[in-house]
Amino acid sequence: MPLASGTKLGQYEIASPLGAGGMGEVYRAHDPQLGRDVAIKVLPAFLSREPERLRRFEQEARAAAALNHPNILAVYQLGIQDGAPYLVSELLEGSTLREQLLRGPLPIRKAVDYAIQTSHGLAAAHEKGIVHRDLKPENLFVTKDGRIKILDFGLAKLIQSPSAAEPGAPTLTEDTEPGVVLGTVGYMSPEQVRGQAADGRADLFALGAILYEMLTGKRAFHKPTSAETMSSILNEEPPAISQIVLSTPPALQRVVQRCLEKSAQQRFHSACDLAFALEALSDTGSAPTGAFSVAKSRMSWLWIAGLAVGVATIAGSVVWLSRPPAVPVVETVTQLTDDGEPKTGDVETDGARIYLNEGVAFSVRIAQVSVSGGETVQVPTQLANAQIASIRKDGSALLVLVGGAFAPRQSMWLLSLPGGTARRVGDLEATSASLFPDGRVLYTIGGSALYVAEGDGSNPRKLAEVSPRLNVASLAFSPNGDRVVFSTYDFASSKQGPIYEMAADGTGLHEALKGEIADFPSQRCCAKWTPDGRYLLFMAYSQGRWDLWAMANKVQPLRGSAIPVRLTNGPLSYTLGAVSGDGKHIFVIGSKARGELVRYDERTHQFMPYLGSISALDVTYSRDGMWIAYISYPDHLLWRSRTDGSERLQLTYSPQLASEPRISPDGTRVAFSTPDSTAYVINMNGGTAKKIADNASAPDWSPDGNLVVVGSATPGKAVGEQGSFESRVVDLRTGKISVVPGSENTLGPWFVTQEMLVAANQYSSAFMLFDFKTGKWSELARNSDTFQAWAPSLDGKYLYCTTAGADPKAQRIRISDHRVETITTLRNLRSVSDPSEGAQINVAPDGSALFAREVGTQEIYALQVKWP
């Protein structure tokens, strides 16, 4: 039902309807807080009754809101009122490009200008890892001053598939899975028609089709039916532009032709490259179309022949240099396991079997499966929680670490295959390790240094060291053992750090993967060479998942440094494992993240769905129990809503990820932290987050709302060193930050009362209480197993926590008398976090323990790769 003038949507007042827009109605509205007019698209209420479709709409709205570019529609806010989602954006005046094309082709200069602007907008989106995938004249808006605005980033992915008899209609389905067609017929790239993963080059194909249409007034690919149109995209070339518009410069025709190449590798590498080519045309004007005119009487045939050879040589060189080099391509993805078990850590192969770790935290076991797939079977061993680190070159034994994922030092063992007999490698202890091809051991001990020892553990010695702020892990060797590659973790930014390479003797240490390209994610991890040593494989993180990349080791003449190539583009998150001996298959863990919020019912002893089983972490309540704030999973963005799920509002947007939110005592603000250890406060009604402290995590409010306590890394201390963490208090009235006396070695402080804090010691084996009146700490509770997560009840009378160990538990500690009560075992609970991180816990207003349970999948896949 249309909204009447004066209707309120959140803070916005509806002024007048602007017409239909995609899936809903669009209205002009007024924002009284900022004194500006905006556009509001109101979507049908049925979307809110279909959680998966609503989730996808919210995800795409967040993606659009993350973009800030003059050629992209600015999205301000996403909200829900009376069951209907709505999207608030800037108000545009003008017309769509489709409306202009209804009047015929555009002048060449105007068409090129529009294409340049669109290229710049796409470049900004691609830089954020966002691909439109439904670019068409309807989604390009031309303002009254001639500025292009790209609309509806990804919203078309929610449109249901229409009849195949409608060649101009969208052909999308709900899920972005392999084999699903995503796009609008006539503007889809060949890879979209085939249902393959599409990256930014699919948008360049669509822009080429739009530019063709702007120049000629005709669609590049248009047949009577959708099937025929898609066949045309795959197999036919559109009529040459010069056949329709004789005055079109040849250089412009070549730009359009390159955009419309059937192979993505043959198109422009990026939207930036396309914009550069178009701007060069715009700067030089129309190129001449005639041939060189030469007076024959004054030119000898030898001079003509020499000139021809020279021109041909130059032209051939230009063509060769402009052609993208051949790149590796994933041809097929085959699922090998289907047991529903959580999988984590390293994956190795001996050529016939694949070895992997399965199970939840502290109940990890080693399993095996055939390289062709089938049933997973446990590898027999008496070692508890053995984690795979490497495999002998001859496949006769696995190198495993024993001691638990949280232990900074774990013992090293060789586990024979297939029997499972274990032999300890001397008395060596390590955090990560790998085997040289000759059997020697390379390992780390929770820091920035690498060590080497003989195969029996003797003669240990330091080999190399990187920056002290980095933690070294994921060690791998080149096929002949002459080089080492390893990953790092930067504690200052709480992100994966650079990947390094060095000679096997520790010399020549340097950062690998220096070649920067558009859309190359900054977080990279876990590199390995292909068996022939030609390519370095690695993982890179973007768009909330890990994808696989490859980079050639050798540089081609005249082409400069090797360029990383993306091998996968979702929809699963891939963890790099092993490579088959012939290099044709990469064995990986493919994860599809999905969580559900559950409540433990102490009466029935069952985990029950809670708040509609939303996929959420770190749920926090207002003091009156009427509002909640939470972190969406797996994208880690901050939301708030009423406890019945109504009035949902997104508070943070990618790339600003959030964690550990806490609602202020008066219910008006939310404190949260980010992965780079910065604490913020944001209004419950949205707006700009205000930074309150650097080097701060897990913020919590004092009962009077004037103070926030945070956990911090101690300046001058290396992570893991005694006293490397402390607790601090931020006074929001003055901005003053002070260290809590005697808080060395404390983590995760919370206010219990205005005069009392609770925190865990650095090694999480005990909880401590701090009394502001006396300035002293006292022990609250101790456990033989480490504490993993904790949260006080709303009334401050109890501390709820989870423990690690072989039998993880949820417990409740009464603060008044330190009484510890076990709520339930968590042996069979899969946390949404990495299985090695243990279970989180939150507390509902009625005292029920809340958990985020993983219901996604983690299975082994084989990726068949075609190498150049």
Description:
- By secondary structure, the chain is mostly beta strands.
- Among the domains are: 83 residues, Phosphorylase Kinase, domain 1 (2-Layer Sandwich), CATH 3.30.200.20; 189 residues, Transferase(Phosphotransferase) domain 1 (Transferase(Phosphotransferase), domain 1, Orthogonal Bundle), CATH 1.10.510.10; 85 residues.
- 14% of the residues lie in helices and 38% in strands.
- The strands form 14 sheets. The protein has a six-stranded antiparallel beta sheet with strand order 1-2-3-4-6-5, covered by helices on one side. Strands 23, 24, 25, 26 and 27 form a five-stranded antiparallel beta sheet that branches. It has a four-stranded antiparallel beta sheet with strand order 10-58-33-32, with no helix packed on it.
- Helix 3 packs antiparallel against helix 9, helix 5 crosses helix 8 and helix 8 packs antiparallel against helix 9.
Beta content: 35-45%
What is the CATH topology assignment of the domain at 96-284? Transferase(Phosphotransferase), domain 1
- Calculate the mean pLDDT score and round it: 83
Instruction: Give helix % range.
Output: 10-25%
**In which order are the strands of the major sheet placed?**
1-2-3-4-6-5
Question: Which descriptors would you attach to this protein?
Answer:
868 residues, 5-stranded antiparallel beta sheet, Phosphorylase Kinase, domain 1, mainly beta, Transferase(Phosphotransferase), domain 1, 6-stranded antiparallel beta sheet
